[in-house]
Protein backbone atom coordinates (compact mmCIF):
# COMPACT_ATOMS: atom_id res chain seq x y z
CA UNK A 1 0.00 0.00 0.00
CA UNK A 2 1.18 3.51 -0.82
CA UNK A 3 1.45 6.00 2.03
CA UNK A 4 1.89 9.77 1.94
CA UNK A 5 5.47 9.42 3.11
CA UNK A 6 6.32 13.08 2.60
CA UNK A 7 3.36 14.31 4.66
CA UNK A 8 3.97 11.83 7.45
CA UNK A 9 7.66 12.72 7.51
CA UNK A 10 6.98 16.46 7.78
CA UNK A 11 4.27 15.89 10.40
CA UNK A 12 6.62 13.71 12.45
CA UNK A 13 9.28 16.43 12.21
CA UNK A 14 6.74 18.99 13.44
CA UNK A 15 5.92 16.92 16.55
CA UNK A 16 9.50 17.46 17.70
CA UNK A 17 9.41 21.14 16.72
CA UNK A 18 6.31 21.58 18.89
CA UNK A 19 7.98 19.78 21.79
CA UNK A 20 11.10 21.93 21.50
CA UNK A 21 9.09 25.16 21.39
CA UNK A 22 7.03 24.16 24.42
CA UNK A 23 10.08 23.22 26.45
CA UNK A 24 12.05 26.37 25.57
CA UNK A 25 9.20 28.77 26.30
CA UNK A 26 8.37 27.10 29.62
CA UNK A 27 11.89 27.72 30.92
CA UNK A 28 11.26 31.47 30.51
CA UNK A 29 8.07 31.49 32.61
CA UNK A 30 9.67 31.72 36.06
CA UNK A 31 9.48 35.52 36.29
CA UNK A 32 5.84 35.90 35.22
CA UNK A 33 4.75 33.02 37.48
CA UNK A 34 6.54 34.53 40.46
CA UNK A 35 4.86 37.90 39.90
CA UNK A 36 1.37 36.57 39.23
CA UNK A 37 1.19 33.45 41.43
CA UNK A 38 3.99 33.97 43.96
CA UNK A 39 5.64 30.72 42.85
CA UNK A 40 9.19 30.28 44.16
CA UNK A 41 12.23 28.79 42.51
CA UNK A 42 11.66 25.36 44.03
CA UNK A 43 8.13 25.17 42.68
CA UNK A 44 9.30 26.40 39.29
CA UNK A 45 11.97 23.69 39.26
CA UNK A 46 9.39 21.05 40.13
CA UNK A 47 7.23 22.16 37.19
CA UNK A 48 10.22 21.93 34.86
CA UNK A 49 10.94 18.49 36.27
CA UNK A 50 7.40 17.39 35.47
CA UNK A 51 8.28 18.24 31.87
CA UNK A 52 10.67 15.27 31.89
CA UNK A 53 8.83 12.76 34.08
CA UNK A 54 6.12 11.72 31.63
CA UNK A 55 8.65 11.61 28.80
CA UNK A 56 10.69 9.01 30.65
CA UNK A 57 7.65 6.89 31.43
CA UNK A 58 6.47 6.90 27.82
CA UNK A 59 9.95 6.13 26.49
CA UNK A 60 9.89 2.99 28.64
CA UNK A 61 6.32 1.88 27.89
CA UNK A 62 5.75 3.61 24.55
CA UNK A 63 6.96 0.73 22.39
CA UNK A 64 4.42 -1.61 23.95
CA UNK A 65 1.65 0.98 23.56
CA UNK A 66 2.51 1.53 19.89
CA UNK A 67 2.27 -2.18 19.18
CA UNK A 68 -0.99 -2.44 21.10
CA UNK A 69 -2.79 0.58 19.61
CA UNK A 70 -0.92 1.46 16.41
CA UNK A 71 0.74 4.63 15.18
CA UNK A 72 -2.34 6.66 14.33
CA UNK A 73 -4.29 6.09 17.54
CA UNK A 74 -1.31 6.97 19.71
CA UNK A 75 -0.49 10.04 17.64
CA UNK A 76 -4.12 11.16 17.92
CA UNK A 77 -4.00 10.74 21.70
CA UNK A 78 -0.79 12.80 21.85
CA UNK A 79 -2.37 15.47 19.63
CA UNK A 80 -5.37 15.82 21.94
CA UNK A 81 -3.31 15.75 25.13
CA UNK A 82 -1.02 18.46 23.78
CA UNK A 83 -4.03 20.71 23.29
CA UNK A 84 -5.28 19.82 26.78
CA UNK A 85 -1.90 20.89 28.16
CA UNK A 86 -2.22 24.25 26.37
CA UNK A 87 -5.78 24.67 27.66
CA UNK A 88 -4.59 24.15 31.24
CA UNK A 89 -2.19 27.08 30.80
CA UNK A 90 -5.04 29.39 29.82
CA UNK A 91 -7.13 28.12 32.74
CA UNK A 92 -4.45 28.94 35.34
CA UNK A 93 -5.17 32.65 35.72
CA UNK A 94 -8.98 32.50 36.05
CA UNK A 95 -8.67 29.53 38.42
CA UNK A 96 -6.12 31.40 40.52
CA UNK A 97 -8.40 34.47 40.68
CA UNK A 98 -11.24 32.28 41.91
CA UNK A 99 -9.07 30.57 44.51
CA UNK A 100 -7.87 33.93 45.81
CA UNK A 101 -11.48 34.75 46.66
CA UNK A 102 -12.58 31.36 48.01
CA UNK A 103 -9.37 29.81 49.36
CA UNK A 104 -6.57 32.42 49.42
CA UNK A 105 -4.28 30.37 51.66
CA UNK A 106 -4.09 27.58 49.09
CA UNK A 107 -4.35 29.62 45.89
CA UNK A 108 -0.64 29.39 45.09
CA UNK A 109 -0.38 25.68 45.80
CA UNK A 110 -3.50 25.03 43.73
CA UNK A 111 -2.24 26.90 40.69
CA UNK A 112 1.11 25.15 41.11
CA UNK A 113 -0.75 21.86 40.70
CA UNK A 114 -2.40 23.09 37.48
CA UNK A 115 0.94 24.14 35.99
CA UNK A 116 2.66 20.98 37.22
CA UNK A 117 0.12 18.68 35.60
CA UNK A 118 0.09 20.75 32.43
CA UNK A 119 3.84 20.19 32.14
CA UNK A 120 3.42 16.49 32.96
CA UNK A 121 0.75 16.01 30.28
CA UNK A 122 3.03 17.85 27.84
CA UNK A 123 5.89 15.48 28.66
CA UNK A 124 3.62 12.46 28.13
CA UNK A 125 3.05 13.78 24.60
CA UNK A 126 6.78 14.12 24.01
CA UNK A 127 7.31 10.48 24.97
CA UNK A 128 4.41 9.29 22.82
CA UNK A 129 5.81 11.18 19.85
CA UNK A 130 9.19 9.51 20.23
CA UNK A 131 7.53 6.11 20.57
CA UNK A 132 5.55 6.65 17.37
CA UNK A 133 7.70 8.61 14.96
CA UNK A 134 10.95 6.63 15.20
CA UNK A 135 9.55 3.25 14.12
CA UNK A 136 7.11 4.99 11.76
CA UNK A 137 9.83 6.76 9.80
CA UNK A 138 12.03 3.66 9.81
CA UNK A 139 9.11 1.69 8.36
CA UNK A 140 8.26 4.35 5.77
CA UNK A 141 11.87 4.68 4.56
CA UNK A 142 13.42 1.21 4.94
CA UNK A 143 15.87 1.90 2.10
CA UNK A 144 17.42 4.95 3.79
CA UNK A 145 16.16 4.99 7.37
CA UNK A 146 19.31 6.45 8.97
CA UNK A 147 19.23 9.49 6.70
CA UNK A 148 15.58 10.25 7.39
CA UNK A 149 15.85 9.60 11.12
CA UNK A 150 18.71 12.12 11.24
CA UNK A 151 16.51 14.68 9.48
CA UNK A 152 13.62 13.84 11.81
CA UNK A 153 15.58 14.51 14.97
CA UNK A 154 16.67 17.93 13.79
CA UNK A 155 13.10 18.92 14.74
CA UNK A 156 13.91 19.09 18.46
CA UNK A 157 16.82 21.58 18.25
CA UNK A 158 14.89 23.54 15.62
CA UNK A 159 11.98 23.87 18.03
CA UNK A 160 14.31 24.80 20.88
CA UNK A 161 15.85 27.57 18.78
CA UNK A 162 12.47 28.90 17.64
CA UNK A 163 11.04 28.69 21.15
CA UNK A 164 14.10 30.36 22.65
CA UNK A 165 13.94 33.26 20.21
CA UNK A 166 10.20 33.64 20.77
CA UNK A 167 10.67 33.58 24.55
CA UNK A 168 13.43 36.19 24.38
CA UNK A 169 11.25 38.46 22.26
CA UNK A 170 7.91 38.14 24.06
CA UNK A 171 8.11 36.49 27.51
CA UNK A 172 9.08 38.30 30.72
CA UNK A 173 9.77 41.84 31.81
CA UNK A 174 13.00 41.99 29.82
CA UNK A 175 11.45 40.84 26.53
CA UNK A 176 13.35 42.18 23.53
CA UNK A 177 10.24 43.41 21.71
CA UNK A 178 7.23 43.42 24.03
CA UNK A 179 5.93 41.27 26.86
CA UNK A 180 2.94 39.16 25.92
CA UNK A 181 0.73 37.35 28.42
CA UNK A 182 2.77 34.29 29.37
CA UNK A 183 -0.08 31.94 28.39
CA UNK A 184 0.24 32.94 24.73
CA UNK A 185 3.97 32.44 24.81
CA UNK A 186 3.87 29.02 26.45
CA UNK A 187 0.92 27.80 24.35
CA UNK A 188 2.55 28.89 21.08
CA UNK A 189 3.56 25.26 20.50
CA UNK A 190 -0.11 24.46 19.87
CA UNK A 191 0.06 26.24 16.50
CA UNK A 192 2.58 23.65 15.33
CA UNK A 193 0.51 20.86 16.94
CA UNK A 194 -2.57 21.89 14.95
CA UNK A 195 -0.46 22.08 11.77
CA UNK A 196 0.85 18.52 12.10
CA UNK A 197 -2.59 17.26 13.13
CA UNK A 198 -4.24 18.71 10.03
CA UNK A 199 -1.44 17.28 7.92
CA UNK A 200 -1.11 13.77 9.36
CA UNK A 201 -4.28 12.59 11.07
CA UNK A 202 -6.40 12.27 7.90
CA UNK A 203 -3.69 10.07 6.32
CA UNK A 204 -3.38 6.30 6.26
CA UNK A 205 -0.62 4.94 8.51
CA UNK A 206 1.24 1.66 8.10
CA UNK A 207 0.41 -1.16 10.48
CA UNK A 208 2.71 -2.05 13.36
CA UNK A 209 3.95 -5.59 13.97
CA UNK A 210 1.27 -6.00 16.62
CA UNK A 211 -1.50 -4.95 14.27
CA UNK A 212 -0.18 -7.21 11.50
CA UNK A 213 0.15 -10.19 13.83
CA UNK A 214 -3.36 -9.63 15.11
CA UNK A 215 -2.33 -10.67 18.62
CA UNK A 216 -0.78 -8.41 21.23
CA UNK A 217 0.32 -11.50 23.18
CA UNK A 218 2.79 -12.31 20.41
CA UNK A 219 4.33 -8.85 20.62
CA UNK A 220 4.33 -8.79 24.43
CA UNK A 221 6.21 -12.11 24.48
CA UNK A 222 9.10 -10.30 22.78
CA UNK A 223 9.22 -7.70 25.56
CA UNK A 224 8.99 -10.42 28.21
CA UNK A 225 11.68 -12.56 26.62
CA UNK A 226 14.87 -13.42 28.49
CA UNK A 227 17.19 -11.44 26.13
CA UNK A 228 15.08 -8.29 26.51
CA UNK A 229 14.93 -8.58 30.31
CA UNK A 230 18.69 -9.18 30.48
CA UNK A 231 19.21 -6.06 28.36
CA UNK A 232 17.03 -3.99 30.72
CA UNK A 233 18.90 -5.25 33.79
CA UNK A 234 22.26 -4.58 32.12
CA UNK A 235 21.17 -1.09 31.17
CA UNK A 236 19.96 -0.37 34.72
CA UNK A 237 23.24 -1.66 36.15
CA UNK A 238 25.15 0.64 33.82
CA UNK A 239 23.09 3.67 34.85
CA UNK A 240 23.46 2.75 38.52
CA UNK A 241 27.21 2.59 38.10
CA UNK A 242 27.26 6.00 36.49
CA UNK A 243 25.17 7.44 39.33
CA UNK A 244 27.57 6.09 41.91
TrEMBL record:
Q: Where is the Major facilitator superfamily (MFS) profile domain?
A: 8-244
| InterPro entries from the UniProt entry | MFS, MFS_dom, MFS_trans_sf, MFS_Transporter
Q: Primary place of residence?
A: membrane
**UniProt keywords, alphabetically:** Membrane, Transmembrane, Transmembrane helix, Transport
Looking up PROSITE patterns in the UniProt record yields: MFS
Q: How does it sit in the membrane?
A: Multi-pass membrane protein
Q: One Pfam annotation, family name?
A: MFS_1
- Residue ranges annotated as transmembrane are 45-66, 78-99, 111-133, 154-176, 182-201, 213-234
Q: Which family does it belong to?
A: Belongs to the major facilitator superfamily.
Record PANTHER family: BYPASS OF STOP CODON PROTEIN 6
Protein name per the record: Major facilitator transporter
Source organism per entry reads: Rhodopirellula baltica WH47
